[in-house]
Amino acid sequence: MLREASQLRAAGRIPEAIEAYRQVLAANPDLPDSWFNLGWLQRQARAFDDALASYQRALDLHIAKPEEVHLNRAAIYSEYCHQPREAAQELRLALKKNANYVPALISLGNIHEDLGEREPAQQAYQRALNIDPGNTRALARLAMVSLSPTLDSDLEVRLRETISQPTETATQRAGLGYALAAMLDAAGQFDEAFAAAAAANEASRAAAGSRGRYDRAKQEQFVDRLIATFDHPIATAQGEVAPVFICGMFRSGSTLIEQILAGHGDVAAGGELDLIPMIVASIPGYPDSIAKVDAAVFVRMREIYLAGISKQPGQKVITDKRPDNFLHIGLIKSMFPSAKIIHTVRNPLDNLLSLYFLHLDPDMAYALDLGDAAHWFIQYRRLMDHWNSLFGPDILNVDYDILVEKPEQEIRGVLDFLGLEWEDGLLDFNCTDRAVRTASVWQVREPLYTRSSGRWRHYAKQLQPVRDTLTEAGFVQDE
């Protein structure tokens, strides 16, 4: 039975493997490794409460290397349950078992970053480096929490020397390179910063292999298929609950909007949920196959989505701030006909520059090249024009540059759109101790500022080809 369960797990047959391990443990409940494997499988199946319980059984049975179990429990609390302090406690328990467990120190640093706790984050990364001086992940994170107008020259030298080591992989060089670019940018050394970002993107592309190549024709065809499939609103049964979806380009202000709204007594911030992408991935032949789906299937999708969100009793609105959900607004409006969409927009040159300086998932290959990023942007705007033609009254455009210039005016407009009243203190979002799991973690810890508007001017020379492309497409005006 145990051999069969292990084979099913190795084959990725998650539901069958879960059932097999349950049978094993029903016959012999004193197998800590099997409880660990069951917990891992339940996490893959998004049965997070069950996974936590199974991991705990493994701990109760004195599993070898309990620090690894605590690390896994911390990931569930942090990534899925939105309970960062519980995650931090698990990591401290891991370090109590093994004070030199570097993965727990790095994860603890990440949690401190999410909570806006800069000094403890720096301390965690420095402890990791004291134990493992060659740990490039800890070094990159230490650099990213040490950004300052005054360049830390010692840290800069350390980054450059490590990047130049022939033993470092492309993945490691990419992570260090993005950190170096951010440090140089913060210190106003713009030409050097752009050169570092360009090298980091090249390393990231090399590390990703075929995944790091953006296919312009394929993206155009995908947008064509979305437009053809969702060419009219699909009438489905109306559910009682409809989340507010905040979407648009990455780095266009979605985190800022959600953090401000999260200060409202009637709003619960869901963060960057993976539920819509998960549902999309479960649909064979998406989006074309949607044309053959009946209303009952959309109801089932809605039930799956609602089962996956954290319940927030007493709050009228829950937000889903996954930027690339803009691709699936047709599906979202089929699942939730009354759903409101907040579409964040920003000066495209600032937006694309911000993406170029960010270490993103290889699946976002368009961000590795400014020309590709401009192409993605044009396709995104083409699709948004289509969604607006179908669902215009339920889509609100919020301009980042106007928001930081006239915040109360813009937020009042958002609240009116959502049917909510103004509350004092909404613009003091930077004082919150809520966790923020995003690349914008440090920006949203500051009061509203306008210095990111027009940042592209520091890189006008390097951005000229992209500017020409966007000007020709009508998205940038000549000056």
Kindly describe this structure.
The protein has a 5-stranded parallel sheet with strand order 2-3-1-4-5, with helices on both faces. The chain has 22 helices and 5 strands. The chain is mostly helical and 479 residues long. 57% of the residues lie in helices and 5% in strands. The model has no long low-confidence stretch (mean pLDDT 92). It folds into 2 domains: 134-213, no CATH class; 216-472, P-loop containing nucleotide triphosphate hydrolases (Rossmann fold).
Produce the secondary structure layout:
Elements: H1 2-10, H2 14-27, H3 32-44, H4 48-60, H5 66-79, H6 84-97, H7 102-114, H8 118-131, H9 136-144, H10 153-163, H11 170-186, H12 190-208, H13 216-229, E1 244-248, H14 254-262, E2 267-269, H15 275-281, H16 295-308, E3 317-320, H17 329-335, E4 340-345, H18 348-356, H19 370-391, E5 395-399, H20 400-405, H21 407-418, H22 460-472
Parallel strand pairs: 1-3, 1-4, 2-3, 4-5
Helix pairs in contact: 1-2, 2-3, 3-4, 4-5, 5-6, 5-7, 6-7, 7-8, 8-9, 9-10, 9-11, 10-11, 11-12, 13-19, 18-19, 19-22
